[in-house]
């Protein structure tokens, strides 16, 4: 009977530990960079965008365009992000940026958020100029999730639970990542981008 009780106690302890690990992202190696209103201190700001903490998010909705750039550089990693976009939003996650003071789609991989992009094959769900998506999914007017994995040359993007990109490309191997706010199509003011949670872990 004592052996059985000991077995049950050990099993319950293991189950509790596993449950705690599932509830604690840090136990799985996740670093939380944005969590509701907190996280601006984890980024450098470049450009002209009115980044601020508001309504349980880190957001921007005015300016000529700007970025939040991580203070750390990352090589192989996974990103999980929760965001809200307007129908006119032009935003994205720029990974492995080669020049953290001048973020562009030609010096990083831009995982796009742009429902009204003039060339829709590189709009929301795509990696601009590297991986097209047809038909383009839409992010506007709702909460969305991105899961981005970069492991060596392999790049995988999952938008709202659906894989939109799976390519191999060796052009950019390491660098910080950036969150964008930019003007909309035809340079009209872009809609708001709101980041509710952004996490990253090395792999």
From TrEMBL:
Query: GO MF annotations for this entry?
Result: hydrolase activity
Q: Which UniProt keywords apply?
A: Signal
Domain 3-keto-alpha-glucoside-1,2-lyase/3-keto-2-hydroxy-glucal hydratase residue range list:
29-201
Q: Which residues form a coiled coil?
A: none
Secretion signal span: 1-23
Q: Which domain of life is it from?
A: Bacteria
InterPro entries the UniProt entry points to: AL/BT2_dom
UniProt protein name: DUF1080 domain-containing protein
Protein's organism: Ramlibacter albus
């Amino acid at each position: 009977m004592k052996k059985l009780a000991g077995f049950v106690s050990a099993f319950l302890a293991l189950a509790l530990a596993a449950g705690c690990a599932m509830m604690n992202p840090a136990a799985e190696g996740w670093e939380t960079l944005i969590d509701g209103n907190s996280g601006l201190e984890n980024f450098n700001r470049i450009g002209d965008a009115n980044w601020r903490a508001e309504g349980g998010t880190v957001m921007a909705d005015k300016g000529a365009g700007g970025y939040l750039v991580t203070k750390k550089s990352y090589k192989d990693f996974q990103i999980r992000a929760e965001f809200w976009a307007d129908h006119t939003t032009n935003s994205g996650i720029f990974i492995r940026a080669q020049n953290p003071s001048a973020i562009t789609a030609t010096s990083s991989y831009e995982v796009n958020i742009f429902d009204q992009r003039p060339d829709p094959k590189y709009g929301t769900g795509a990696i601009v100029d590297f991986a097209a998506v047809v038909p383009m999914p839409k992010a506007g007017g709702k909460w969305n999730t991105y899961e981005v994995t970069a492991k060596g040359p392999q790049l995988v993007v999952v938008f709202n639970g659906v894989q939109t990109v799976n390519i191999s490309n060796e052009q950019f191997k390491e660098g910080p990542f950036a969150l964008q706010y930019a003007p909309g199509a035809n340079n009209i003011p872009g809609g708001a981008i709101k980041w509710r949670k952004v996490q990253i872990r090395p792999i």
